[in-house]
Amino acid sequence: MMGKRYAAIRPVNGGKLAQHRSRVERRKVRLMRQRKIRLYCLLTAICLAVIAIFLIQGKSFIRFNELDKKIIEESGDKGMLDDEWQLRLVNSNNPLDKDFTVKLKTVQYNHKVDERIADYLTNMIEDAKNDGVSLLICSSYRSVARQQELFNEEVNKYVSAGKSEDEALAEAAYGVAVPGYSEHSTGLAIDIVTPEYQVLDSGFENTDAFKWLDKNAHKYGFVLRYPKDKTDITRIKYEPWHYRFVGLEHAREMKDAGVCLEEYLSLKKVGVHK
Fold first, then answer.
1. Topology classification of domain 77-142+182-268
2. Which of 24, 32, 33, 107 has an alpha carbon within 20 to 30 A of 9's alpha carbon?
């Protein structure tokens, strides 16, 4: 009787096994090193981004702090900076004083504004341009005489449409301020559009220019003066193109609180200045 046959068992090659394990270990070390390098690069990029943001914000802070200092020196009164000219209220109940005067400075395309806000406005337009957004001033300071001309044109438009004189006056006053009651005569208000959309209607809110202003205007001391949800308070229709300078601190507080100038003055219990 023949004995059972067994398959020959090959002896394990200890040298090859050790080499295999060595390759595996080296691969693990290499992968860990690569992961560490990627993590280091990521952390470095984040740190550089944070530093860049800090430098940009610091530059803006220094720039606007210098502007504020300049305004204080020119006005000669710190109280004048915070409580009077920046928050001057002009609306249907608060006309400008008949003796009101303002020193003007030319900005974009020969438009004129109160000289104290010119640098803020110029910086805002330049920074928007750096972000790929074109801001175009279409209206700025207006004399009372010029405001009268615009108001008369608006009245005539409604009369031609069949409205009575009283109805035309009421309709006109909702869209164009009565002469002597217009913010444009203060030199603190501007109408801003963009070359791609120069129509003064609610459609402007869909432009990149409006979106940029809505996000950034307060950083330069400007606020949307006649918001959509405040018409019962301002008594002026929604104007997404109309911006008013109120100063850096006030603009930030108004933006955060979501209030218009009338509400802000009431909350701050600041007197009406003419």
1. Muramoyl-pentapeptide Carboxypeptidase; domain 2 (3.30.1380)
2. 24
